[in-house]
Amino acid sequence: MTGKTDPATPQKWQFRFFTIWFGQSFSMLGSHLVGFAFVWHLTSTTGSATILALGTLMQMLPQVLIAPIAGALVDRWNRKWVMAVFDSITALFTLLVAILFLLDSAQIWHIYLVMFVRSACGQFQWAAMSASTSLMVPKQHLSRIAGANQTLQGVMNILGPALGALLIAALPMQGVLFIDVSTAFLAVLPLLFFTIPQPVRNGTQTTPEADQKSSVWQDLLEGWQYVIGWPSLMAIIFVAMMVNFLINPAFSLLPLVITEHFGMGAYELGFINSAFGVGVILGGLVLSAWGGFKNRIMTSLVALTISGGAILAVGVAPANMYLLAVAGMALFGFLNPMINGPLFSSLQAKVEPEIQGRVFTLLTAGASFASPLGLLIAGPVADATHNQLWFIIGGIATILTGLGSFLMPKILEMGVVDEEEKEEGKPAPFNKKAEKKAASLKGGLHRAQQPQTE
Questions:
Q1: How would CATH label the architecture of 13-200+214-444?
Q2: N- or C-end of the chain: fewer Cβ atoms within 10 A?
Q3: pLDDT per residue over 79-112, tens digit each?
Q4: Rg of the Cα trace of the chain?
């Protein structure tokens, strides 16, 4: 085997992977329901842009503060139990706040706390599932799985807001939260019946005894050295920081754009979010069938540039043109898989499985690093001006960032398919500078020591 630990044959991988995948999709649906319910509760009870921005901040902070640590731990721990345990913790905290709503004792800070905990647990779940995918799925199918994941995200973006709006009208808040608890059970159940392969580290299967030879801090440093030694990845993180600084605050204010600018309610908020979801589904299906340009990152950059215009449309839509904002959100949703899918399939193909958890979470943390600052600024500024301002600024900035990225060769290099990557079962070589730095640390990667079989 070449860096693989999964004994399953290519003919047997689908049943295990998709059983786990469908279980996680139920958990994702519950998360979308809860997310919509929390946002609408804050919007309808406070009407404050600052309150909404702080709520989004509670969801963003774990991506910056916890994601890197989560990645290092996921690369050490049993990934199956990481997903099961943290999904269960998420359900527990949701249950506790549901009881507070039942007792009519829930406060805004309770919601903030649960938002933070759910997001923190989500970093572990996402890192474990993302890093395990390349060990459960043959390499030639990774791009299609990336498209399927984007399609799933689109389905959730349709069902979540639509069901959320209906359930809020039909059930008390605690009723919606109890539904999420039940979906967590459906996500954990398949994990009890399947094994998830562990990556090879330093030429051996990861075990608690082997992990004792290096600390979490050393693992984190190893991942950090890997990332900073890869100029293409650092350039992509920088671009993502620039875009997220303005885009995330804008979308955190969407509920107030719907209620105050367009004068509408929960159903219209659910509809525009569902339009985004329809776009994601269509974009995911197109990406799955098409596969994108030969250079994967070229697909991402073209989609990023066009998406700036879609965001701008939401910002300039007058009060009597709600449908223009809907169209902008739908187009942005369609382009979203084109941006994210090729990027993550490139990383899954090029980054060794034993370090993917750290690389993915460091990418998330880096991309999200500027978002908290944007959120802290956006709330007060929107309260003082108008909520669409951030869509206008963000749209223009995204267009300029996308165009500028075409002039950065290091970014385009990420999308080049290496000859070795085309061979099933043979890991693509990663950046040599990154390899040298990572290997210099205790517990570093030593690809030459990995067992090889013909």
A1: Up-down Bundle (1.20)
A2: C
A3: 888 888 888 998 899 999 999 999 988 899 999 9
A4: 22
